[in-house]
Amino acid sequence: MQFLAASGLTEEAIREAEHFEFEGVSAKVFRAEYIVAIAAGVGRAKDKARIEQFQQQASLDQTKLDKILQRHKLKLPA
User: Fold this and answer.
1) Helix (H, G, I), strand (E, B) or coil at 22
2) Could you give the CA distance from residue 3 to residue 64 in angstroms, rounded to a whole number?
3) Is residue 65 included in any domain, yes or no?
């Protein structure tokens, strides 16, 4: 679990979050594309590692991710 201030990109991520229910508890979870974009915006070493991990393990919608990055003027680390 991670807490983030809601503005701009994170606000959009909240609006677009997927709803899940687990053992009777309802929750909203950021889509993987938003987690990657947020990590790209922060840019720390551990965020770069998180991006790599998501690219290897998650089923990312690359078109959706590209649009999010463009909208928020972000780039993935090289």
Assistant:
1) strand
2) 23
3) yes
> Range of 46's domain?
9-71
Indicate the DSSP class of residue 52: H
* pLDDT per residue as tens digits for the range 39-51: 999 989 999 999 9
How far is 59 from 13, CA to CA, in rounded Å? Answer: 17
In a domain, 4, yes or no: no
In terms of Cα–Cα distance, which of 9, 29, 31 is closest to 19? 29
**40 assigned to some structural domain:** yes
As for how many domains the chain has, the answer is: 1
How many residues appear in the chain?
A: 78
pLDDT in tens, 3-53: 666 578 999 999 999 999 999 999 999 999 999 999 999 989 999 999 999
Place of tokens 């780039």: 75
